[in-house]
Amino acid sequence: MPASNPNSDKSFTGDDDLYRAVIMDHYARPRNKEKIEDPTIVEEGFNPSCGDEVELYLQVDNGVIIKVGHQGQGCSISQASVSMMAELIEGKSIDEVAALSECFKGRMTTREELTEPAVDIGDLEALDGVRFYPVRIKCALLCWETLNVALDKAQAKD
Ligand code: ZN
User: Fold this and answer.
1) How far is CA 90 from the centre of its chain?
2) pTM above threshold 0.85
3) Gap from CA of 112 to ligand 1 centroid (Å)
4) Over the stretch 121-131, which tens digit does the pLDDT of each residue have?
């Protein structure tokens, strides 16, 4: 499907195939899927309702996430989400990442029609349709919840 006007209404049905392709691409070729050297923080998350596991490795310096790695396994939604997240947050400040996290969580949990995201959430927009599947929302949010715990610890260390 060709890229359409980014301001046009993104109905779930209209972008379904495109979104699925983006999700499967991240699942098949996960970004940043590696342990990193000298992580500041390592944090594990588990989603018992689906069996998803994520292990995050973060190098944080001066309030900035300078390097991100992850390991783990699980369904396509959980693994695509952590791949998209890793790609998006590397090089960003903890404050920027907190805004991203809030924005994405808001999209996953709202019952309202979605509008353009307030911040650039990159490929995460491909997960917009997940909010219609309550069981899968936990899969999409697992890595973000793990990230929030990790960043709280990173800030406590500073
Ligand atoms: Zn899952």
Assistant:
1) 12
2) yes
3) 24
4) 999 999 999 99
